[in-house]
Amino acid sequence: MQKNISIPFHQFANAMVTIGALGSPSGLHGWLTGYLSTGARLSDTQWQIEAENYLETPESLPKPVQSLMTVFYGWVLQGLENESMNFTLFMPESDDCELSQQVDAMAQWSKGFLDGFGAAGKVSGKLDDETKEVLQHFDAFSQVELTADDSPEDSEDLLHELVEHARVAALTVFLAFNEPEAAEPKVIDGDEKPNQLH
After folding, report:
1. Count of structural domains, the chain
2. What is the pTM of this model?
3. Which of 104, 168, 180, 192 has its CA 20 to 30 A from that of 147?
């Protein structure tokens, strides 16, 4: 697995513009995060198809973008699995866009998470209270928007709080459904013999 992968948002977003994608990079990141959080995984071919569908591209992804999507998948999964908990939401930098665009990206990411979580089809029956609460929060976040009455400073502070909350919440759900399997050493009892082929 590649270590320390970094995908700049603006480069990824530019690539999406060149292929005429309608879906947003933040939304796609949220979708994949939600999907992986259920414990589901995708083959490279499945992921390319899902990415095309989500982004609503007019044509199949060209080879360079397919390669980018493969790296993107590994990067998101690595971020979620990383013990250092350095997973972050994929959003435009404040230097590159208006605050309103960041708020929109946050809303798109949250809706994407919910869509991906549902699309995985892995979680059925009753969810625990903590997971239900997380999904309710993401539903609320998906509808967040700036109003004329909001001051830029307060809005920026609130956005940072929401992003951090979403980051921790996503990791919480991922850990709940992706518990590492305990690798217990197999001990052969002195009286037992290993199974033999006859």
Report:
1. 1
2. 0.87
3. 168
Token pair 């052969």 in the structure block, residue: 188
Please report whether residue 184 resides in a domain.
no
What are φ and ψ of residue 177, in 5° steps? -105, -5
Predicted confidence (pLDDT) per residue in 29-74, tens digit: 999 999 999 999 999 999 999 999 999 999 999 999 999 999 999 9
Q: How far apart are CA 105 and CA 112, in angstroms?
A: 10
**Cα–Cα distance, 98 to 112 (Å, whole number):** 21
Please indicate, yes or no, if residue 121 is contained in any of the structural domains: yes
Q: What residues make up the domain containing 104?
A: 9-177
Under 8 Å CB-to-CB from 49, ≥6 apart: which residues? none
Query: What's the CATH code of the domain at 91?
Result: 1.20.120.740
The reply to whether 198 falls in a domain is no
